[in-house]
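Re-run with default settings, no changes from the original entry. Doing this only to confirm the output is reproducible before filing.
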Amino acid sequence: QKVVLARVCEARANAPIDATQPLAYLDTHYRDSYRFLFEPRPDHAFLGATPELLVSKRGHDVSTMALAGSAARGATPDEDDALAAALLASAKDRHEHQLVVDAVRAHLADAGDLDVPSTPIVLKLRNIQHLLTLIAGRLRRPADGILPLVRRLHPTPAMGGVPPERALAFLRDAEPVPRGWYAAPIGWLDSDLDGVFVVGIRSAVTQHDRAWLYAGAGIVAGSSPEREWAETALKFRPMLGALGAGGN
């Protein structure tokens, strides 16, 4: 029903990349997203500005989202609203989005009581807009903590596909470049096992003077190769701008 392909862009710098500098750029320009930096050793970093929450837990309260279906931002308010309306009216994008909603609902069905809106809204980011369904609920066993919820949800159909086993098998065979940390859960948890995890998209991996940027394209029946290619270009823009390689 759906498979999410990853496109990779390689960039080279004239000197080792100091990951704190692109992070500062993301903090300034993408405050509407979750900014992150993970650097297990010097000059080897994973960073980005992701709009996608995987799961948040505080006590009994849990929240997550379905984020799938994309459109460009308009050059004027009227054009922007027209693109948002077209996104909401798109049968292809609504189908792609609903696959994610249904999977999240199914994965958390026996974990608690969920409130799942029947229709998505449009999330407007600096460079792109998405269909968004915010999902919240109450857990039956909060003491289990956030990590079992991460295991239930990752990878969502927004990163892998539907059905997940067939989609992931296809990706392992078809994608020429390993994803590595791209789209991985990244976040934090406290001593009560509460916390927040996001999906590591709109991201890059840096090693010394090289960086690899990743962008995903959800492929369903009716997908246009040209449109999907253009969409991945929009998704590269945050990290290209952060690395001083274009974008905004």
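Helices lie at 20-29, 77-89, 91-107, 147-153, 164-174, 225-242. The radius of gyration is 18 Å.
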